[in-house]
Design brief:
eight-stranded mixed β-sheet; 193 residues; alpha/beta
Length: 193
Amino acid sequence: MTEMPGMVEPFRHTLHGGDAAYPRHLVTYLGKQAPEAVFVWGNLAQRPLASGPLLAFICSAQAPASVLLAVHDRAQQWRQGPQVIISGFHSPVEQEALTVLLRGPAAVICCPARGLFQHLKPEWRAALAAGRLTILSPFPDSIHRATRETAVYRNRFVAALADEVFVAYAHPGGHTEQLVQEITAWGKPLYTL
C-alpha cells in the first residue's frame, strides 16, 4: 500500500472476549456462538465501538431496483445523522449505501464476511485515516474469501452489535428473512422500507 502524504495508518486491534473493549452485545445475542475475538482496523480512540447509536443495515443480494433507489435516498439522510451505520456493505444495495455514506461526515463500520482486508480503495483509506470508517471482522486474517456461511454469520454479528436494525429487503425464504425472525425474537427495534 502506498502511504498518502500526511496520512497516519490507523491501528489494527484484536479484542478478545475477556477484554474490556470487547462488545458485550455479542455475548448477549449470540451466546456461545459469539466470536472469541473481534478484529478491528481503525482508531478506537477516535471512534470507540460504544459511541453508537449503532444502526445495522442489511439487504438481500436479490433486491429489486426500487429498493436500490429508496436506499440511496435513505443513505443521503444517514450520512448527516448522528447514528453510526454498521453493515457488511456486500450486496449491491449495501454497496450503493456505502458509496453515499463515504461522501459525507457519517461514521461507518464495515464488517466483511472474511478476515480484514490487506488493501483498501483510496476512498476507504481516507475515511479510515479520518476516523470515520472502522472495519470489524469476527474472522481471523486466515479467512481470505467470503462464503455463504461467513456472510450469514457476519450478518448475525452485525445485527447483534447494533442497537437497531434496518432491513431494506429480505428475499422470501432466504437467509435474511431467517435473520429477521431471529432479530424479532431478540426484541431489537427492526425497520424496513
